[in-house]
Request: fold
Amino acid sequence: MTQYSKLPAFIILICIMGFGAAFTSGCNSVSYSYKHNFGDTCWGMGDTLDIPIDVNKGEFYRIRVNFKEDYAYQNLYLKLLYQLPGQEKMESFMLQDTILTPSGEWLADKEDGTYPLDFTIYRFHTDTTAIQSFRLIQFMREESLCGISSVGVIKE
Reply:
């Protein structure tokens, strides 16, 4: 058997491995630590999402908002509240970003039927303490905010 007779088997093996890598790379499934699905309901200004996860020292998290096709605004404003151990008062900061252009074109690529927008939360990255409590409020309008499919938290 010459060295060239093994070549077709080697090429077939490389092709199979390449096909497998291409097939699995298209499967961008996201693993959520927490996810709230809105279904057909809207998110009211007074509706607080209590996030039931522990945020430990040195961990990074992303908040992902998945938008439906019928989302009616260009921007999104959220208020994130968190509480450090031993404190009674909650701290807060705003999360804001643009999701649609003025002409109504999405700035995100469609994934699994929705348009995702991620906010990486660097304030949770601390070497001294962990976050005890964590809440999220939509801070857009007095009326309900429709067109959001889900809100989730992804640990990085």
